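=== Discrete structure encoding ===
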Amino acid sequence: MAAYTYDDFTKKLDELGYQLSDADLALAQSNPDAGMSILQYKQDYVNATTDEARALAHAGAEAIRSSYGNYSGGGDGSEYYLEALNPSSFSYEDAPEYTSRYDSAAQSTLEQMLNRQEYSYNGQTPSYTNQYQDTASDLLEQILSQEDFSYDPDSDELYAQYKKQYAREGQRAAADALGTAAAASGGIPSSYAATAAAQAGNYYASQLTDKIPELYQLAYSQYQDEYDKLLSNLSTVQSAEQLDYEKYLDQLSQYNTDRDFDYQTYLNRYSQLQSSLEAIQGLEDADYQKYLDQLSQYNTDRDFSYSQLLDEIDNQTAQRGEAVSNALTAAQYGDYSQLEALGIDTGAYQSNENYQKAVEAAQIAAEYGDYSLLESVLNMDASNNSEDWQRQYQLAALAAEYGDYSGLEALGIDTSAYQAAQQSGGSASGIVSTMKSLGDDARAYEYLVSLGYSSSITAQLWSLYQAAG
């Protein structure tokens, strides 16, 4: 993630009042962080008090230009030199990032599910109170406590009324019988009259006795009617209570129905949230799969672009190698124009041509035991050949190849490691290793030429370098 914006860069540039090259400005626009780094190095350069500090600041800016822009700013940073392609030159747009469109909705739905309240029902539970309980209990008590039926004529008011009535009628009948008998006997009392009067009285007494079974039955009927009435009243009360209870059951059933419906609604709400979350997750999965597809395509395209860069580097390397080889061949015949066209300074190379030929001749003679030419080369006039330290080093190194390390030691070089390398045959491999460490064919070749070897030796070392990959 970028630390700065292009606006930050332009504000800083205006604040410092520096002038930057078009290349630096273009790099800052595409990469504000790199632009800010170049500004910092330029500020370090301006504020430096020694050549070393200025060199370090310039090297830092050049590293930024090379790493992020694949160019060099030259000696003072104001120029523009496009560097040869290398793997570090590769740049590609940032990978696509995934941003969920459904994160907020999923989070909200999940929170509703996790934070839902425990179920509760606000409806009032119906209650039942038997308002007939006391009446029913009283009636039941009367029924259960009713005495067994018994009949006593003397305690029967109706029997008492009949008794008075039949006694009165018996007295009247007896008086009528006495009157009738007296009239028949001329008013003289007789036994017949008494008998007739007694018979009339007894008749009504027997009539009263005959009424007792009727009165018994009537009394029993009244007893039974009273019992049946109590039963009927209890049944009526029970029926009324049953109606009330049925109303309560209906209310309770409706309460249970309403509560079940409310609870089902509660469950349905949770199921809806769960279904919504699953739907959101499905959309999220679909979006994420699209992102993975885009990322896969991005990786494929980036790999393809990188392969193209490597192919181009290989092609340029091959073309440059061929060009260098052709230039070296031409240089062997005195034509240095091709090397110069490749940007290689051949001044030192040309000035040393006679010297190199002398070295080659001395080497050939030394192979056949004649060291006079070699000694002559090593002792050439210092005014012509020893002013350049590099040349002195090459002379000393050439002598060292034949066991004479005095030249290297005179230059202050510890020859113990050199002699170890000489014994292991590693001199050429050391040069190739140094060339490879430079990381660029052009720089490697410039270093090789600067060593001052003959064109044939240079070509051989260049072939070793290319073979080493």
